[in-house]
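Propose amino acids for all 357 sites.
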């Protein structure tokens, strides 16, 4: 009798234990399910709020390769960081070790090998960028090209560029009006093989030929992004070609140098200097009347809309394949207000793209 009671007691204990285990298992399962549901709700909420996530459900991270040593590229990064904040995504700047094509390409290859969900780059010389762009494509990594158009649209997700042909024509018309169609022009470039500058020069030459027979490029010099070399070549050109009355730059580093050299030579008052972009010393020179004006390329739009395009890609929203960032002319009249003009054309989050097909 005692043995039977013992057996029944043991069965009861086992039954209670199994019930408790079942409750515990069910509880753990419910905790796991609750965690999964919470994660799903969080991801859905993120998408509803416009926060882009990758295939793993993580907020996306964007790598931007950029020469932030220069003010114009700092403007681009400000635009990118503003968009990253608006969308709640991660944005990191990768600065190449040297200001060379080789160093930029190396930095880009390193960025592609990391865990970024998208890359922003500027292929300022076409051929060397073929390999890293192909690597990114093979990896399925979205790439947004900025500033300099790349000739193969299959290699990038979208492109926010400066229309260099339009730039050349616009500059020609500006100088035609400024000089009444009479200009002996010194054309200043970084190097002859910088693709966007070469296109601008070709477009500019064609435009001035159509505008006036009294507008000619009398000489072309190369600064090599070196202030000392720029000063030497400017002085040499001013001496060899005293008829020069216009200096047009398509690189920003030498513009104020030109004003300084001309001032020392006593010829500044006869020159119209047209620069590019808006480094602080150039803005000050325009304000002081030493440089007449500058063609400011909209780097802010490039930076903001590059990030926005990437965010729209991950959110499944439409975005334009090609966008012209545009240019704003800075002169003494708008030197203190031009920054408002830079952000005016930027398509911010929530605004419809004006150039969406």
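Proposal:
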């Amino acid at each position: 009798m005692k043995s039977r009671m013992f057996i029944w007691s043991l069965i009861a204990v086992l039954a209670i234990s199994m019930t408790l285990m079942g409750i515990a298992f069910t509880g753990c399962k419910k905790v796991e399910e609750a965690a999964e549901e919470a994660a799903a709700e969080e991801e859905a909420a993120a998408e509803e709020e416009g926060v882009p996530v990758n295939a793993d459900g993580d907020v996306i991270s964007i790598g931007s390769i950029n020469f932030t040593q220069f003010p114009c590229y700092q403007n681009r990064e400000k635009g990118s960081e503003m968009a990253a904040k608006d969308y709640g995504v991660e944005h990191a700047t990768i600065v190449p070790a040297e200001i060379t094509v080789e160093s930029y390409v190396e930095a880009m290859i390193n960025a592609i090998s990391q865990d970024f969900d998208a890359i922003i780059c500027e292929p300022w010389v076409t051929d060397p960028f073929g390999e890293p762009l192909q690597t990114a494509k093979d990896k399925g990594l979205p790439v947004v090209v900025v500033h300099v158009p790349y000739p193969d649209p299959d290699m990038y997700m979208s492109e926010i560029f400066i229309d260099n042909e339009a730039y050349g024509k616009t500059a020609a018309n500006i100088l035609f009006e400024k000089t009444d169609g009479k200009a002996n022009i010194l054309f200043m470039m970084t190097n002859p093989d910088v693709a966007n500058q070469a296109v601008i020069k070709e477009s500019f030459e064609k435009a001035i030929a159509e505008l006036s027979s009294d507008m000619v490029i009398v000489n072309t010099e190369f600064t090599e992004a070196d202030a000392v070399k720029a000063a030497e070549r400017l002085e040499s050109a001013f001496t060899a070609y005293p008829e020069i009355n216009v200096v047009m730059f398509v690189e920003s580093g030498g513009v104020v140098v030109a004003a300084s050299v001309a001032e020392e030579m006593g010829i500044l008052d006869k020159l119209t200097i047209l620069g590019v972009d808006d480094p602080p010393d150039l803005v000050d020179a325009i304000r002081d009347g030493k440089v007449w004006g500058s063609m400011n390329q909209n780097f802010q739009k490039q930076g903001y809309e590059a990030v926005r395009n990437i965010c729209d890609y991950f959110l499944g929203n439409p975005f334009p394949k090609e966008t012209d960032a545009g240019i704003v002319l800075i002169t003494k009249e708008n030197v203190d207000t031009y920054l408002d003009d830079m952000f005016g054309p930027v398509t911010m989050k929530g605004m419809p793209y004006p150039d969406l097909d």
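The two ends are 90 Å apart (CA to CA). Residues 61-162+299-325 form a domain with the Rossmann fold fold (CATH 3.40.50.2300).
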